[in-house]
Amino acid sequence: MTSQRTHFLTLDFAGTNLYIMFVNGFEDSPPQEAANPGPSGAVDMGHTMTVYLKPCCCLLLAACGTLLGEVSTRVCRPDMQTCLEYRVDPDSQKVRVYDDIMVGTHLMIVVSSDAATHWNGALAIENEHRLTGLLTGRNYNPLTEDWEESRLPAASERARVYTWIQAGIAGFALEGHSRAVDGDWFIIDYTAIDEGPCRVKFYDWYASEPLRWEFQFTHVPTRDFNLDTRVDFSDFAFLAYAAWESDAGGGPLTEMADLNADGVVDMEDTALFCQFWLETTE
Ligand SMILES: [Ca+2]
Ligand SMILES: [Ca+2]
Questions:
Q1: Which ligand is nearest to the CA of 276?
Q2: DSSP of 159-216, one letter per residue?
């Protein structure tokens, strides 16, 4: 066996120490000391990974860190407890469809991770979809120039949420940090501002295909005719008056309450109205 020379390099990785040990000049299997690589000797062997390269060097990685995990998203009501179900678009596995979102509805897009790792991504609305949906951040901080309440404690205090505006794009850049831990990292608010579809793109800049998926929100006319954020008897009274106006030849109320856009306000609109009974937009 030839003589050996050992060097250590210590890095901070994901908030934990990563020890890299270089061993030069041995021919047989790595020496016993290689299993105890850290200068401090405090290495959890359950998380030790060894790469052994011949003939002249061996690189040993011992990390008390975490493995790369999965970043995920969910769409919730403002109470953070009620999350919406989606269906996958049969024409594109990347499109998650959320049907029947009433205009005026506020939702939250939550970005989470099941692992502590550095990550960069974005949420954005592009081109004509900017006319029907709006993304907003929380509590802009002019000192950090980011939306500080859109980043959550698990993302670490060094994460940032920056405005991302350029030609045809309106969104937010989500910049993680190596000190992040698993949990909810970012929250971006979403508002349905007009009827029709709106797609929100979710990017993961570390993925081989950065566009991970799209949220497609299909917005339907509001039933909250008096705009007090709740669909209730006041709106039903409005609908009844619009039906009377419709029978009398139509008018501005008819246009507002004609939920299926067939030119009249009748029982079909009443049925569509009742689907959102007691719905709230706050
Ligand atoms: Ca109302
Ligand atoms: Ca109608």
A1: 1
A2: -EEEEEEETTEEEEEEE--TT--SEEEEEEEEEE-SSEEEEEEEEETTSSSSEEEEEE
Please name which ligand lies nearest the alpha carbon of 262.
2
CATH of 71-220, one of 3.30.390, 2.60.120, 2.60.40, 3.30.70: 2.60.40
CA 131–ligand 2 middle distance (angstroms): 24
Which of 89, 66, 43 lies closest to 199, judged by CA? Answer: 89
| Ligand minimally distant from the alpha carbon of residue 237 | 1
Q: Which residues surround ligand 2, an ion (CB under 5 A)?
A: 258, 260, 262, 269
Going from the Cα of 105 to the center of ligand 2, the distance in angstroms, rounded, reads 22
- For residue range 185-228, list pLDDT tens digits in order: 999 999 999 999 999 999 999 999 999 999 999 999 999 999 99
Q: C-alpha angle 176/180/181, rounded to 5°?
A: 140
Query: Half-sphere exposure (CA, 13 Å, Cβ side) for 59?
Result: 5
Residues 6+ apart with CB under 8 A from 37: 8, 19, 21, 43, 48, 60, 62
Q: Which ligand is nearest to the CA of 256?
A: 2
CA of 138 to the centre of ligand 1 (A): 26
Q: Kindly give the distance from the C-alpha atom of residue 98 to the centroid of ligand 2, in angstroms, as a whole number.
A: 23
pLDDT at residue 278 tops 80: yes
The answer to whether the predicted template modeling score (pTM) of the entire model surpasses 0.85 is: no
pLDDT surpasses 90 at 258: yes
Domain limits of the chain? Answer: 5-63, 71-220, 233-274
